[in-house]
Amino acid sequence: MMDPNTEQDVEENFYNIDDVVALDSHVSCSFESTTPQGILQILGINQNEAGKETKAEAPLWILPTIVSHCNFRLPKAFNEEIQGVLTSHASAANLEQLQADYYTVGMNLSKQVTEGKNLAKCLVSTFTQRIGNVIGPALQGKHRPARCDSLEKKLFDLAAKARKESQKWQTTTDSKKRKLLTPKN
């Protein structure tokens, strides 16, 4: 049994394997010479390699811990140019090619950067522009559209499953009605 004094509240998605995989994405960081050596060691940078400004790739999951000690730039898939394209015409974009876990990584990045509000708005705009083209084919029994990120693929699969369950329910219900309506002689 856990000691109540050491228990910690965690985010709802803490144990979600998809989020864990998405957080394995990396961002480019630059560290000043004043950065604590422990942070550089965690990232695998030897003290001898650290200079006036040290650049390294850091996993997204560690960003909340090191953000106060580094400068980082958004990965290309989330930069202002891509955000502009997605905001104006997201349906043509290949999110799978940009970042397989586009929405998950984007949501995590938006919490870490000063321009996070703009990134969050872009994510919402992208999602709302694309969702009809993801759910619609699933409900019509068509194939999943190409260029979907992992979240869109999950939504397609859930909508397709809902369609099948609904059809199953309708056929079961219809046959029960027919039996009830058939006159007994």
TrEMBL record:
A GO term from the CC aspect: GINS complex
Predominant subcellular localization, coarse grouping: nucleus
Keywords on record: DNA replication, Nucleus
Compartment(s) where it occurs, according to its Swiss-Prot or TrEMBL record: Nucleus
CDD domains with a match to the protein in the record: GINS_A_psf3
Gene Ontology biological-process annotations: DNA replication
Statement: the UniProt record of this protein carries the keyword Nucleus: yes
Calcium as UniProt keyword: no
InterPro entries, alphabetized: GINS_bundle-like_dom_sf (IPR036224), GINS_Psf3 (IPR010492), GINS_Psf3_sf (IPR038437)
Known partners and oligomeric status: Component of the GINS complex.
Function: The GINS complex plays an essential role in the initiation of DNA replication.
Listed PANTHER family: DNA REPLICATION COMPLEX GINS PROTEIN PSF3
Similarity-based family: Belongs to the GINS3/PSF3 family.
Name used for this protein in its record: DNA replication complex GINS protein PSF3
